[in-house]
Design brief:
heterodimer; A: alpha/beta; Aspartate Aminotransferase, domain 2; 2 domains; seven-stranded mixed β-sheet; two-stranded parallel ribbon; 11 helices; 11 strands; B: about 400 residues; Alpha-Beta Plaits; five-stranded antiparallel β-sheet; binds pyridoxal-5'-phosphate
Chain lengths: ~375, ~400
C-alpha cells in the first residue's frame, strides 16, 4: 500500500499507540473524581496543557481546551463568541466546512458574513482584507495552511497589521494542517484562538485542542459538569490526550527533518512527473505551499477515474478534501483558489508524511503516468 | 385493525387445467408476504377466485402495501364477515362509517355473488342494502351516486359468509410469481430498465438482476443506486438475486481492439452475451432489457437487429414501443423515479465515441465477433466467476452473499 493522503488523516505514530494502549489500560479513572486516581490524572493533563503551550512557543495568556475534533474547536469559536445580529464576521470561501457551515448558520441568525478575496495565486488578497478588518469585523477566521492546495497563508504579517488597527477583532486560526509542519507564531499573542488536531499529526482520532486566549469569553456548545473551564463539559479522555501529546511532541521534534525530506520529495515529483506525464499541471508554486501537500491537475482525465485506477494499485490519494469529495458540484473552494472551472473535476491532492519514501513516490509517478497514458489511449472522457 | 383480508385474483379465468398450480403459486407468495410482515401463522382459505386470510392480531398497513406488490392479485380488501343474513349487514356498515376519519358524502353498493343458491341476485342485494343505509343510518347524511361515489360498499356473498368492505387496495394484477419462467434482467441506473423489470413482474416472471459494474471507470455511487433499485424491484419478487459483474477491465480491453465508433454497439453485444452465459448457468429462460426503439443511437432498429443476430438467447424488450413520458410515469408509480434521477457516472458515455455508428457495417461487426468468439467467451466467463452476488429478500432487504 502507498498512502498519500496524510492531509485527510495520518497513520498513528508508534509512540502514540504505545501511550494509548498503556493509558487505556491504566488510566481508566475519571479525571474529575476527587480521589487520588482522579487527581493524578488531572495533574498530568494540566502538565500536558502547559507543555503543549510551550511547544507552540506560548509562555502565558492562553488555555488549552480539549475537544473531540477540529470541527468542534472551530464550531466552539464561531458559535461561541458573543456575536450579535448586525455584526460582521470575515471568513474565506476556501475555508474548511467546519468554519463555513457554522458561519452560514450565523448568517441565518442575522449576522453579516463577509468573504475574503484571493488573488491569482490563490493567496489572500491583503489589501481587501485590511480594508475590511480595519473597520467593523468582530471575527476573522483564517487557515494557516490550506487543506487542499497546501497554501501557506501569510498569517503573521496580516495579523500584526490588523491588530494595530482593530484591537477588538477576534482572530481565529485553523492550524490543523500547519501544526507540526510549519512554524506557528503564537508568541506575539495576536492570534486569539488556534485549532489543532491529533489525527492529522499521527495521533488518534477523537481528540483535538482549541488554544484560546485567557480573556476570551465563549458560550459552550456542550453543557454539563463544567470541565475545561466550563467551555466543554464531558469526562476528559485522558488516554486520548496523552497519545495526542505524544504525537505532537514527536511531530515538533522531527519537524525540520520531515520538512527537508518532504521538500525533496516534492521537488522530485515536480521535476519527474512531467517527464512521464507532460499533461500534468501544478497550479501553485512550491514556494507558497506547505511541503506536505501537492495539488495537481490532469486536464484530460477526470480525477475520480484516476484515483480509482490508483486505488486498484493500492495507491491512495484524494480528489479534493476527503470531507467534501462526495459533493459533485462546481467546487467553490477551487473557484476562489483561482483554479479554472474546466479543471475542477481534474484535481488530485497528494499529501505526504513521515512514512512516505522516495520509492513510494517513484512508484506513484510511474503508475499514474501509465494509467494516464492508458486512459488517454482508449479515449476515456 | 382488520382481522380479515379478502384477496381477489386476477386473470384466473384464463387458466384451464393449470388452475390448481396457479392457485398454489399465488397462495405461496401471499403466505410468504403475510408471514414476513405479520409475524404469525395466517390461515388462508380458497373461496372460488378469492383467498380469505385471517389474522389474530389484525393486519397491519405494511402487510397490505406488500400484498399490493404481489403479482397476480387483482385487489385486497380488509373486510368484515357475517353469516348469510342480509339484515346483519347494516350494523357492520355502521361500524365502518363510525371509524372513518373523513366522512364521505356519496356512496353506492356493489355486490358480487358466487353463492348461486342465495335467494337474491346481486342487483337486488345492492338495491336493498343501499336503501337500508339511507333509512337506518340517516346520521351520516349519505346520498347515492352510482357514477362517482366517494364510498363504495362492497359486498361479497359466498357459500357461507357475506364479506363487507369499504376500502379496496388494487393489486398489480397479472400472473403469479414464478409461473412464467426465469429471466435475466439487465439493470442500469437509468429510468428504463427498472420499469421493464416491473412490467415483467406482472407477467409472473422470476427475475435475476444483472448489473455491469465498470469500476474503476465508474465509482461506488452507481452500485449504490443499483442496490437501491433492486431493493424496490425485489419487493415484487419472492426472493431474488443480483449479480454484479466487474466490467471495467473488459470494456477497456475491448476498446483497445475495436473501431472507436463501434464501442457502444460491441458493449451491448457482449453485455447480452454475458447475460446469455449467466442464463445458461442459472438455467433461466430469457433476457429482459429496457431497450426503447430509437431512443439513443445504439437502439436503432439496425443496431438492435444486428446484435440480436449474435445473441444466443431470447431477448424480451417490454418497453420497445413506449414513449419516454410513459416510462417516466410508471417509474413514478413504482417509486424508482427518484432513484433513477440521482446523477451517476456512466461508463458507456465515458467510452462513447463522438459519432457512434447508426448503420453498422455487418461485415466488420460480424467478422470481428466471429473471429474473437472464443477469446471473449473465456473472458466473459472469468467475469462471471468474479461476480458479486446479492440476495434480495421479499421485503427488499439486501444481503451480499459473495
Ligand atoms: C484545515 C482543516 N480544518 C478542520 C478539519 C476538520 O477536522 P475533523 O474532521 O477531524 O474535525 C480538517 C480536516 O480535514 C482540516 O483539514
Amino acid at each position: 500500500m502507498i498512502y498519500l493522503d496524510y492531509a485527510a488523516s495520518s497513520p498513528v505514530k508508534e509512540a502514540a499507540i504505545k501511550v494509548l494502549m498503556h493509558s487505556t489500560v491504566n488510566d481508566f479513572a475519571n479525571p474529575s473524581s476527587n480521589h487520588q486516581l482522579g487527581l493524578d490524572l488531572t495533574n498530568k493533563i494540566n502538565l500536558i496543557r502547559e507543555k503543549m503551550l510551550n511547544l507552540l512557543g506560548i509562555k502565558r495568556g492562553y488555555r488549552v481546551i480539549f475537544v473531540s475534533s477540529a470541527t468542534e474547536a472551530n464550531n466552539l469559536v464561531i458559535r461561541g463568541l458573543a456575536i450579535k445580529k448586525g455584526d460582521h464576521i470575515l471568513i474565506s470561501p476556501t475555508d474548511h466546512p467546519s468554519i463555513k457551515v457554522p458561519s452560514y448558520q450565523l448568517m441565518r441568525e442575522g449576522i453579516n458574513v463577509d468573504a475574503l478575496e484571493h488573488d491569482e495565486e490563490g493567496l489572500i488578497d491583503e489589501k481587501h482584507l485590511f480594508e475590511k478588518t480595519f473597520l467593523k469585523e468582530k471575527l476573522l477566521a483564517l487557515s494557516y495552511v490550506h487543506n487542499q492546495s497546501g497554501h501557506i497563508f501569510q498569517i503573521d504579517n496580516m495579523v500584526k497589521k490588523i491588530k494595530e488597527h482593530n484591537k477588538n477583532i477576534h482572530i481565529h486560526v485553523d492550524g490543523v494542517q500547519a501544526a507540526g509542519k510549519i512554524n506557528i507564531n503564537m508568541r506575539d499573542m495576536l492570534i486569539d484562538s488556534l485549532t489543532i488536531s491529533s489525527h492529522k499529526m499521527g495521533g488518534p482520532k477523537g481528540i483535538a485542542a482549541l488554544i484560546l486566549r485567557e480573556n476570551v469569553d465563549l458560550h459552550p456548545l456542550i453543557l454539563g459538569g463544567g470541565q475545561e473551564y466550563s467551555l466543554r463539559s464531558s469526562t476528559l479522555a485522558a488516554p486520548l490526550i496523552f497519545a495526542f501529546f505524544a504525537a505532537f511532541c514527536e511531530a515538533m521534534e522531527k519537524k525540520d527533518e520531515l520538512n527537508l525530506k518532504l521538500s525533496n520529495l516534492k521537488d522530485y515529483i515536480m521535476e519527474n512527473l512531467p517527464k512521464q506525464c507532460p499533461e500534468v499541471i501544478f497550479p501553485f508554486a512550491k514556494a507558497i505551499t506547505s511541503h506536505h501537500i501537492l495539488m495537481m491537475i490532469f486536464p484530460k482525465i477526470k480525477s475520480d477515474i484516476l484515483i480509482r485506477h490508483l486505488e486498484m494499485k493500492k495507491i491512495y490519494v484524494s480528489t479534493s478534501s476527503a470531507c467534501s469529495s462526495k459533493n459533485n458540484k462546481d467546487n467553490e473552494v477551487f473557484t476562489h483558489l483561482k483554479i479554472k472551472s474546466a479543471y475542477h473535476q481534474n484535481v488530485i491532492r497528494l499529501s505526504m508524511g513521515d512514512e512516505t519514501t522516495l520509492e513510494e513516490i517513484q512508484t506513484f509517478i510511474n503508475e499514474i503516468s501509465l494509467i494516464h497514458q492508458d486512459l488517454i489511449g482508449i479515449g476515456v472522457r | 385493525m382488520y382481522k380479515l383480508l379478502v384477496i381477489s385474483i386476477d386473470e384466473l379465468w384464463l387458466k384451464g387445467k393449470n388452475r390448481p398450480a396457479y392457485f398454489r403459486a399465488i397462495k405461496k407468495h401471499v403466505v410468504d408476504v403475510l408471514t414476513h410482515y405479520q409475524d404469525e401463522v395466517i390461515p388462508i382459505k380458497n373461496e372460488e377466485q378469492r383467498l380469505i386470510c385471517t389474522s389474530e392480531k389484525g393486519f397491519n398497513q405494511d402487510a397490505i402495501l406488500a400484498l399490493q406488490k404481489v403479482p397476480g392479485l387483482h385487489s385486497i380488501q380488509p373486510s368484515r364477515a357475517i353469516d348469510l343474513d342480509l339484515e346483519k349487514i347494516i350494523d357492520e356498515v355502521d361500524l365502518e362509517l363510525a371509524s372513518m376519519r373523513e366522512m364521505p358524502r356519496t356512496f353506492k353498493v356493489i355486490t358480487k355473488r358466487t353463492n348461486k343458491r342465495f335467494p337474491h341476485n346481486s342487483m337486488e342485494i345492492s338495491r336493498y342494502i343501499g336503501h337500508l343505509i339511507l333509512k337506518k343510518l340517516p346520521q351520516y347524511k349519505l346520498v347515492v351516486d352510482v357514477h362517482k361515489p366517494q364510498l363504495v360498499v362492497s359486498l361479497k356473498v359466498s357459500d357461507q359468509h357475506i364479506y363487507i368492505a369499504t376500502k379496496t387496495y388494487p393489486g398489480i394484477g397479472g400472473q403469479p410469481f414464478n409461473t412464467s419462467g426465469h429471466l435475466i434482467t439487465l439493470l442500469s441506473g437509468g429510468f428504463d430498465s427498472p420499469v421493464a423489470s416491473f412490467l415483467m413482474n406482472k407477467r409472473g416472471c422470476r427475475q435475476t438482476y444483472l448489473f455491469f459494474y465498470a469500476y474503476p471507470f465508474v465509482g461506488q455511487n452507481v452500485l449504490d443506486k443499483i442496490l437501491k433499485l433492486v431493493g424496490i424491484l425485489g419487493q415484487y419478487q419472492n426472493g431474488s438475486k443480483l449479480y454484479v459483474l466487474p466490467f471495467g477491465e473488459f470494456q477497456k480491453e475491448l476498446s483497445d481492439h475495436i473501431k472507436p465508433d463501434y464501442r457502444t454497439l460491441f458493449f451491448r453485444k457482449y453485455m447480452l452475451e454475458a447475460a446469455a452465459l449467466l442464463k445458461s448457468r442459472l438455467k433461466a429462460d430469457a433476457i429482459i432489457t429496457g431497450d426503447v426503439l430509437s431512443q439513443v443511437s445504439s437502439q436503432t432498429i439496425g443496431n438492435l437487429a444486428i446484435v440480436d443476430q449474435l445473441t444466443p438467447a431470447m431477448v424480451l424488450r417490454p418497453l420497445i414501443g413506449f414513449n419516454k413520458s410513459e416510462i417516466i410515469e410508471i417509474s413514478r408509480k413504482i417509486n424508482t423515479h427518484d432513484i433513477s434521477t440521482i446523477p451517476h457516472d456512466d461508463a458507456c458515455a465515458m467510452f462513447a465515441p463522438k459519432h457512434p455508428v447508426l448503420r453498422p457495417d455487418p461485415e466488420y461487426f460480424l467478422s470481428f465477433a466471429k473471429e474473437n468468439q472464443v477469446k471473449y467467451e473465456v473472458l466473459l466467463n472469468q467475469v462471471l466467476d468474479q461476480a458479486g452476488i446479492y440476495q434480495i429478500s421479499i421485503d427488499g432487504k439486501i444481503n451480499q452473499l459473495k
